[in-house]
Specification:
Layout: E1 2-9, H1 22-31, E2 36-40, H2 55-61, E3 64-66, E4 81-86, E5 89-99, E6 105-114, E7 120-126, H3 131-146, E8 153-158, E9 176-178, E10 194-198, E11 202-209, H4 213-218, E12 224-230
Parallel strand pairs: 1-2, 7-8
Antiparallel strand pairs: 1-12, 2-4, 3-4, 5-6, 6-7, 8-10, 9-10, 11-12
């Protein structure tokens, strides 16, 4: 089974031109041609955290649909994160994972399968700005995943890690972390903040950054993508 994953911090649909244009955000999303997209900053910051990316616009403008994650009808996600699936993929289970931090942070793990495909798990994260907290968050996430049913697992999101050599230690041995390319800031990308971590049973075929004129203005992050091949995990 081969799928395309993507991760995109949409900055609440606020572009580098200070215009909030959800339709423009979805133009970038569509350009990814992904099967599964992990989104960060989909909701406004203050309670009740109303969505910045309208669900009805997603339905009208894409072949994707959001997983039912939000704890209230005003939001699209949880801790500002959501996962979109192409039609034909279905969410079997959703696990909201609280992560330690000075400010509220969390991860979302979704078990997914197609009509006749191999079940797999996608986790979306938006980690803290300080490495001390990022390491604690990754350790908490790893502990939770270690107790979950074995299946191909992919962690996607804004890892907020500038270094290419440190910070990912809690994922060692169980995951291989890939930084597809420079994704931040969008106007002049320098940092590889947006990453993909792959478990046993997930083989990376290719990865990259969607760097287009539209993507450079639609958010402060460029989206990243990864093509992977899945095979069953031996328990």
């Amino acid at each position: 089974m081969q799928i395309r994953l993507a991760s995109y911090n949409i900055r609440k649909c606020l572009g580098m031109d200070r215009r909030r244009l959800p339709a423009r955000t979805l133009d970038v999303v569509n350009a990814l041609s992904a099967d599964v997209i992990a989104l960060q900053e989909v909701d406004r910051r203050l309670a009740p955290r109303p969505f910045a990316l309208p669900p009805e616009l997603i339905a009208a403008e894409t072949q994707l649909r959001p997983v039912a994650i939000a704890p209230n009808p005003e939001s699209l996600g949880w801790h500002g994160q959501s996962i979109l699936l192409r039609r034909g993929l279905h969410a079997l289970a959703v696990d909201r994972i609280d992560l330690p931090s000075l400010e509220p942070r969390g991860a979302i793990a979704v078990e997914i399968a197609g009509d006749d495909g191999l079940p797999f798990r996608v986790v979306t994260v938006h980690l803290a700005l300080m490495r001390h907290w990022r390491r604690r968050q990754l350790a908490a996430l790893r502990a939770r995943l270690d107790t979950a049913a074995p299946m191909p697992t992919m962690i996607l999101g804004d890892f907020n890690e500038w270094s290419g050599r440190g910070g990912m230690e809690p994922l060692a041995e169980a995951f291989r972390v890939h930084a597809p390319g420079r994704s931040y800031p969008a106007t002049q990308p320098m940092g590889r903040l947006d990453r993909v971590a792959l478990s046993q049973g997930v083989h990376l075929l290719g990865a990259g950054v969607l760097d287009t004129p539209l993507a450079r203005v639609a958010s402060d992050h460029l989206p990243v993508w990864a093509d992977v091949r899945l095979e069953p995990v031996v328990a």
